[in-house]
Amino acid sequence: MDLKKSRQILKSLADDNRLRIINLLNHGLLNVAELCQILRLKQSNISRHLTRLRLTGLVGDKRQGQFVYYYLIKPANNFNKELISCIVNGLKDSEIFKNDVVELKRIKRS
Asked: Where residue 87 sits, what CATH number does that domain have?
């Protein structure tokens, strides 16, 4: 991986909401409506964040019926693998990450 690509990935992670999205997608497929409900952000904001993460190769999408579901792409290199691990494991004890996971579980039950 070249330095420019690494820098782009790091820049894409320099946003609290994108870190929260990574944390949530680590728990499985989610669509924009679910992310909006959990993060309490507008659809346009969520879509913008997802586009940035998709362009850097961290997040992928797949269509199922009328919905587009987003997921974490299995890291193709150690750099991405370590970044995702640092985010998910290093921040899992943060209050906002914990609250997001609680909310995710609540909406998945309903």
From this structure: 1.10.10.10
Quick check: is 10 in a domain? Answer: no
pTM over 0.90: yes
Q: Hunting for tokens 């995702």 — which residue is that? A: 84
Mean pLDDT of all residues in 80-88 = 88
Residue 86: inside a domain: yes
AA identity, residue 20: R
Whether the predicted pLDDT of 1 surpasses 80: no
Strand order in the sheet with 59-64: 30-31, 67-72, 59-64
Q: Classify residue 2: in a domain, yes or no.
A: no
